[in-house]
Amino acid sequence: MANYQEIVHLNVGGTRFATSWHTLTWVPDTFFTALLSGRIPTVRDETGAIFIDRDPNLFGLILNFLRTRDIDLTTVNIRALRHECDYFGITPLSRRLALCDEMNHSACGDVLFYGYLPPPLNPPIPGNGNNRNTTNCSRKNSTASNTDVATNRSHSRNSSLDLRTVGRIPSQDQLSRCGRGHSRAASLGNSESHKVNTWADSMKVQIIKAHHNWIAVAYSHFVTGYRLTDSCGWYVVFQSPVQDSVIERIALNAKTGGSATSSGSNTSGTDVMLGIASGSHVRLWAFSTHTEPVRRTLVGTFNLGVRVEHLLFVGPQLVALSGAGSRSKAGVWHTSTQHWQTQDVAHLTTHDTAGSFLLLGTATGAINYIDMQKFPLRMKDNDLLVTQLYKDPNQEPITAISVYLTPKTNLCGNWIEIAYGTRYGSVRVIVQHPETVGHGPQLFQTFTVHQSPVTKVSLSENYLVSVCSEYNHVRSWRVTRFRGMISTQPGTTPKAAFKVLALEAPTAQPHNDCGPYGEQDEEQIFIQKVVPDTDTLYVRLASNGKRVCTIRSVDGSAVSCFTVAECEGALRPRRLLLCGHRSGAAQLWDLTAPTDRAARPAPPAPNNAAGEGEESPVGEGGPSPDELVRLLSACDLDAAPAPLPHSPSRPLQP
């Protein structure tokens, strides 16, 4: 039997410690009991001390706890110390540290947390025949009709309150299958293990979209629709039929055909259209939500001929786009004519919308447009009226485009302002005057600050923001306007330069778009998701990169997709961050107040320390070095995509 008073000499990371056998072994089943019993082979230094290759500073804290059964946490990194306790198996201290860590986090979220949409309790499975009659959460089974119309909701307005009650946020121990976070039950000594739910991975949220006060949550083979009312919050309204193919793109359009009320009455006359794309095929449904039960009608199934890369609504028209090299195509379903039409669009690379206009950038340097209001007039000619609006002076491939329509005035109509980026890093602004209809837009200004292809560009009332492919490097400028129109006096002023690092695979980027998000007459934001498997997002101002807030999943599950939407409530519009998760749930965060606070101008520096006309240095933005290291520790950098591109040579100037 070992002598409990025997002195044990340790060399931890080059620092020597001496303690008793009893001190190291009074906690059973630890690293030390295995080490001193010979179950773990020992390595000794030149003095005979047992060598342990760990952090000596953290080990000293653990050793003091083993001596005194007490610890001072005033200057301790709890996360790092807890990691060491888990390594050494010091369960009593690890439980205390876990509980301390949980005091900073709640399953009810923080002040920005706005809602939790639980995953379906009975997810439909492709091919099992239940795509005509589905259930979700507390809803009862409904009977589908024998026509193309199907029903998806059987609860009344009052029973929708039950849905919010049943859809509770699961505890962290219930979500331990996600491999993240600490079990609350374990921190209190509950060693009960939970089996992994095998459907979790297949049921992760693939895409999340929003329009007005509606949300569409897409899983691999079906889509669930939610509606927001002030009295009931979010509740399930419809569910799409189960698709045999994996859903790759969705589009949502909520249009009001009657007088909607804040109480969400079934007589509000609200109809919703949902488009789903898989491969080259597009399916479009219309949901009549003002009836009880909800009527689901299949409008049609269409074939673009090539894989659909973008699916969107321009007004009531559903548009499918593909930029597959020389086989680029545009397909449009027009609601009033009930007609689907496709047309080749040479070398399509990017797009944007403004009012009824759909603008298309091409690899040949041309900007084309389709006016959806004129589209029905030429239906008999089978022509989408794709018209060239502008040609880049250097014929550089256009890789990003943003349209800004100035407000109409009594003096003139809308100015059309277009900012676009090219493959060779140029950012240009062109302007179309109302009085020069019939003439092409005029080149207004050119910036050549990027050395890599421009991936994003945004022109708003106050700022011009561009993003290139070098780790999402951002440049921003403050825009000068006169009577609402962009002005050359004194012109644009450089604002900031920063990076929105995101190590995401290209296949996931369409559903994890960093932005910028927001209306063009207000402050826009970026959403930064650094690594693919993370529960943390950073919200940053698009104008200067300043951090607005940090969002962390309330249940520890990783974020699989996200978007930002302006939801129109009866009380006030809200800017919501919508996150889909690998657990199958969706979490909502209200960014309205923190964005407004972050966008307020900073007080002037004393004695004009920042310089005349200059702004103070930008404060905290993306993750700090400590946060970044923590995020990257869970990411295999060797397997991560390399966002740093090869910068193509700039062509000779004409």
UniProtKB/TrEMBL annotation:
Residues 124-160, 594-630 are annotated as: Disordered. PANTHER family: BTB DOMAIN-CONTAINING PROTEIN, SETA BINDING PROTEIN 1. Residues 127-136 have a biased composition (Low complexity). GO terms for biological process: protein homooligomerization. Keywords: Phosphoprotein, Repeat, WD repeat. InterPro entries: BTB/POZ_dom (IPR000210), SHKBP1/KCTD3 (IPR047876), SKP1/BTB/POZ_sf (IPR011333), T1-type_BTB (IPR003131), WD40/YVTN_repeat-like_dom_sf (IPR015943), WD40_repeat_dom_sf (IPR036322), WD40_rpt (IPR001680). Gene3D superfamilies: Potassium Channel Kv1.1, Chain A, YVTN repeat-like/Quinoprotein amine dehydrogenase. It comes from Papilio xuthus (Asian swallowtail butterfly). Residues 137-160 have a biased composition (Polar residues). It comes from the Eukaryota. PROSITE patterns: BTB (PS50097). Belongs to the KCTD3 family. SMART domains: BTB (SM00225), WD40 (SM00320). Residues 6-75 form the BTB domain. The lineage of its organism: Eukaryota, Metazoa, Ecdysozoa, Arthropoda, Hexapoda. This is BTB/POZ domain-containing protein KCTD3 isoform X2. Signal peptide: none annotated.
